[in-house]
Amino acid sequence: MSPNRPMLEIVALEKRYGDNVVLRGVDLRVARGELVFVIGPSGSGKSTMLRCCNRLEEPTAGDVLLAGRNICTGSSRDLDRLRLEIGMVFQNFNLYPHMTVVGNVMLAQRKALKRPAAEAKAKSMEMLQLVGLAHKAEAWPAELSGGQQQRVAIARALALDPKVMLFDEPTSALDPELVGSVLKVMKDLKDAGMTMLVVSHEMGFAREAADRVVFMDGGVVVEEGSPDEIFGAPKAERTRAFLSRVSG
Amino acid sequence: MATPVAAPLSGLDRFLDTFFNPTVIVRYLPDLASGTLVTIGIGAATIVAGIALGLFLACLRVRRIRLFDLLIVAWADVGRALPPLVVILIFYFGLPSVGIRLSGPMVLFLVLSGTLSAFAEEIFWAGFTAIDKGQWEAGRATGLGFTTTLLHIALPQAVRLALPPLVNRALAITKMTALGSVIGVSEILSAATTAQSFSASATPLTMAAIAYLIVFLPFVVLARLLERRFAWKKA
């Protein structure tokens, strides 16, 4: 793949549920190592767009390309293989409650990547170290705080060596005092060169860490630019209205 | 008025003689013991086959294939609606007329495990539907296929949810092995009623009751333990 090719390309993406049009032709590119931050009012389609990027939602039309490979064509086996390269972090963590922390991080390594147990274990411990939770390896998810659970979920995704990480409102379900620990892990990831597409309301984090901010409304990208451009001098009226609502 | 003190004693004697006659106990203990083994055998086979089939049907239903859905729901609804005794009589006395001759124990096993599978399917299905959709999404998003996600993520959680009601239901249906007495299966109750008519004593029925307690009480205790453990997990 050419170094100039975007890691993730979303092309003319449409999503309809019956008569309800959620995405009306979204185009978005995320370069290698870039952190793109998506903001917008609820119902703007930003989460749906993110979920189309690994086909948890099936796009009605349009394409999503990962390093040049179209994830919207091909067999379900192809899709499973591509999903290994796309890490996803959910709002509600979705840890497996019947497995320990290290069991959560190991499962897909063992069953999807077919890594031997010892290798998967070592990789899991390395990833848990990265998110500061190596000492919780044998704990159960129910014994962890929300912030710790989300960091385990990040470790679980990272253990598969993804090319891109999708974050779907990763801090929205957290108590305010726990948000910082998750954002710190995300910032570390960004600094380590991970390609990231983040849907979130953490404007402070967007200012600090995002390369580019995208404002979505009504199923389209209304405006995109650097954090300074979007937060400092938004061009579109809808962006201005949204930002004054969330900051006011 | 002549024997005011002796009357209650003779009453107790009569009670013991009716329900706990030692001679009758010794005479019919081997019959009751072999009946108990028959009950345990058919009961165990019913539990294994009924739960296995119920689990298989529930897993198949998770696939949401329309035709299978319809058949499974029909099986579960009919199986839960029909009294097992009616089906037992139909199988045992009706099927020979169309050339299908099944032994009494086989009829009992087929009907009871079929009934249990209908209830077990619904119990497991309820467990599957109670699992958060996010669990499936987390599995699929990490590259796991449908079957792997089902086996490693959804199934263990569904089984945990299903266990307390499942043990109760398995118990209720396994007890129905007593229905074998109407088609001549020599299980506990059948052995006891036979012994009762030969001995003209109610003692064999007492022995049957005790035999049922020995076989089923541990399961009741198990069900209670499972319920309590489950309640903890939720808190």
> Order of strands side by side in the largest beta sheet of chain A?
6-7-8-3-9-10
Strand content of chain B: under 5%
User: How many strands in all of chain B?
Assistant: 0
Oligomeric status of the shown chains? heterodimer
Mean of residue pLDDT values of chain B: 92
Instruction: Tell me the helix content of chain A.
Output: 25-40%
Number of helices of chain A: 9
- Poorly predicted runs of chain B are none
| Structural class category of chain B | mainly alpha
By secondary-structure content and strand pairing, the structural class of chain A works out as: alpha/beta
Q: Report the strand count of chain A.
A: 10
Principal-axis shape of chain B: elongated
**What's the shape of chain A?**
globular
Q: Flag low-confidence runs of chain A.
A: none
The radius of gyration computed from the alpha-carbon positions of chain B, rounded to a whole number of angstroms, is 23 Å
* Helix percentage range of chain B: over 70%
Order of helices and strands of chain A: EEEHEEHEHHHEHEHEEHH
